[in-house]
Amino acid sequence: MKLILPVSRGAGNVEAAVTAASRIWEERGFDSATIIHVGALDAAKRVKHVVEEYLKVDTGIEDLSVHAIPEVQGERTLPDILRRVFREKFCDEEGVVVISSAGRRLAASTALATVSAGCRLDVAHVHFYWGPWTGLVYPYVPRRLEPIILMHSVVEAVNGRRSAASRFPDLTSRDRDCRGLWGGDVPPLRCSVAELARRLNNAQTFSVAGPPLRAECGMARIEVEGIDSLRLRLCDPQDVANSAARVAKLAAGLADRRGEALVQLPAWMGAARLRGVDEHREAGVIVDTNLIYFGIHNSALEGLKVYIPECAVLEVQKRVANAVKRGGPSSSSAVADVLAYLALQDLLASGASIIPSGPPPCDVGMTRIDLTLLEGKTLATGDSGAYKFWKGHPIKRVASDIVQASFEPHSVDLDLRVDPSEPVTLARPYYALYQGLISLALLAEAGVSGALRIEVEDAQGGVKKVKPPLGAVRRFLGLERG
Known about the structure:
Number of domains: 3
Shape: globular
Distance between the termini: 46 Å
Oligomer: single chain
């Protein structure tokens, strides 16, 4: 079985190609691959490296532009060129053509050429529910968010049903240190979420394919020792949304020995939506420190432009430094500081900008921001006192708006409701669930709660334990043991 993978230039196409190759390898299997492109050699080389290095499949690269003669080049002739190339090079064996990582023109031309060439080649598309997972690749994304859609089928034999996740490295290991194998570095929180996705994918090998789109059911058990145990049904996105809501309620209710609880945790993990900021997506939002604690990084992952005043950065850094000097967080409030510090790194990696301000505290420091930086932007806080102060301050005449953002800890069931017409609502609950599990692991490590245990059922009905990945977070904080 051969994989034929067209790749185009453009943002996200390398990630799409790596994901497509990994998912097809799982579901259908292939023992050779050819990447075809027109002027996208760099992207093709990056995909070839990943496929050969981790899937262990010999991979060639075919530049389609060398097959075109000048007098027939043009948009209408690309399918003809592709049909000729397919008949000359790819008709000698069965295979599958995956069009997911091609631009529109190349994807349409490839599909048309495949069908009309008369070869024994299937045409498939790996669908992506990007949302907060944008920029990551499978197997560092939940399998159910990468379904395979078979568009044209002529090949009867299918030899797949294996786990690509077992072939890919632990992103949080000391050797990998959160370097994305598809290019670039991943901040420690996002790295931990991605690695948890890989570990869960590896523990549960099941099919997600169509049409009609179908997925086998998965179950998991989350236990916080001595406190509670949740049995989670992970069969479709709404199941996952319900599971994320249950984890959010559990985490928010955990209190340390002083009775402190992380009531903001449902918002931080993305289960309770932060209201009052998303409508200012175009102008951008300058955020108070508390919004970093309230999960503004989740909105940034979905495209909100965030500006972080220096006073907020200094406040979070100072609190985390105090916890690290004492050997690590040992209370709910200290864990909240660590979670905010991790969220800050996610914000910076997603394109947030740090802007000069006055010194902490930020309710005063943000009034010292240069007026040229304030103009046209929204000031946002989760503090009613800061909101009232700014409303009576001259900065209100410069900023486009001043808003008090809020969340409802008990609204997670409604906020995570899945709407099939909005793909982001299918992807968001998975990210909230996985961030919630990372936060539970950090609470356990800080001694705020009992040990966290994650167990999942595999396709054969057996139970596998999944260890929460915290190595990247420990190293980032300077707390790695041994």
